Amino acid sequence: xxxxxxxxxxxxxxxxxxxxxxxxxxxxxxxxxxxxxxxxxxxxxxxxxxxxxxxxxxxxxxxxxxxxxxxxxxxxxxxxxxxxxxxxxxxxxxxxxxxxxxxxxxxxxxxxxxxxxxxxxxxxxxxxxxxxxxxxxxxxxxxxxxxxxxxxxxxxxxxxxxxxxxxxxxxxxxxxxxxxxxxxxxxxxxxxxxxxxxxxxxxxxxxxxxxx
Length: 212
Fold this sequence. Notes:
With 212 residues, the chain is of the alpha+beta class. It contains five helices and 15 strands.
């Protein structure tokens, strides 16, 4: 990833695996974001030495003219449209989806803009009610309407159901830097703390690789 640490992958779409393995634009130390969609599509963003985080598009096997270095394959049509509309203004940094609600998505750009469609109403109400003045750092969407809103400073709001482990982590004493929720499984998440530590709930067979 962009930290320079080696990446580990398994069962990725063939084209995506080839990009990560062989394309110098997506070499270790350059990848900043990867989103996998239920239809096998993906959005891969990397750092480009000349332009910073910018956009290259590859839809199915047809090359489309754009600016390097993001690769996409078979994006859902609504997300494709939003990314295209924002590409001239800002680079896409993060895309949040919910596989239980296929029309839900949230796109964050490097201009701190959020492009959204059918994000859970409770999430939007929290953003407007609690963070309208000071603003937000990020929003993580998860499976079946779950979400975490990170405000400026240490303020955090969330809805993750009765998952005790994650509720305790979010309530805990450590300040949270970032959160990722799985869009496919309501019991998968990663939390990054400001002190450099982290906590995660992963499939058992991931642990050997993560612990390395």
